[in-house]
Design goal:
The protein has 175 residues and is of the alpha+beta class. It has one domain (14-52, 60-161): Nuclear Transport Factor 2, Chain: A (Roll). The chain has 3 helices and 6 strands, in the order H-H-E-E-H-E-E-E-E. A hairpin with a 2-residue loop joins strand 5 and strand 6. The longest helix has 16 residues, at 14-29.
Length: 175
């Protein structure tokens, strides 16, 4: 997001929050993952818990993904720079964001709720199992946003998949 034009720097309206989420979705769909990393604050968490009521920092719950800064950067590096059989050919994704709501939280954090639908497909030929199949990942997403160096940044992205307690297919792409 660009620098604020007016108003309190600790507030964010629904339209601006939706624009932020839409930009994140576009960066993911276009595999501009280095730019996507730039949306995160240095201390941010990217998290897909199994338990919908889990709280970060409790370490009592199993997660599909629980990435701090180093782990998130490693994941992006592997996706962009190393040959991964599970991403050859790379996934094509479509991230759809809806039902955006904003509420202030404590200590300058703005909490943004949304529903997210991610469609993922990998093309290929008949010799590659599972290719051409569309996988759909639907979930409730919470973004905690903070101001960092004059920009809104993600402090936490928590995506609770509707199918979180079922078998989950290949997640070697970004949700």
């Amino acid at each position: 997001m660009s620098a604020p034009t007016a108003g309190d720097l600790t507030t964010l309206d629904v339209a601006a929050a939706a624009a932020f989420l839409h930009r994140e979705a576009r960066l993911l769909d276009e595999r501009r993952l280095d730019e996507w990393l730039g949306l995160f604050a240095p201390d941010a968490l990217y998290w897909l818990p199994i338990n919908a009521d889990a709280e970060p920092g409790t370490h009592r719950d199993t997660s599909l993904i629980f990435d701090g800064d180093v782990r998130r950067r490693e994941r992006v590096y592997r996706l962009l720079s190393t040959p991964l059989p599970s991403q050859n050919p790379p996934s094509r994704t479509l991230h759809a964001v809806s039902n955006v709501e904003v509420e202030p939280a404590a200590d300058g954090v703005v909490r943004v709720y949304s529903n997210q639908l991610v469609v993922e497909v990998r093309t290929g030929d008949h010799t590659q199992r599972g290719l051409g199949t569309q996988n759909i990942f639907a979930g409730h997403c919470t973004h905690d946003l903070v101001r960092h160096e004059g920009e809104w940044r993600i402090r936490m992205k928590k995506l609770v998949l509707l199918t979180r307690d079922a078998a989950v297919p290949n997640l070697t792409f970004m949700l």
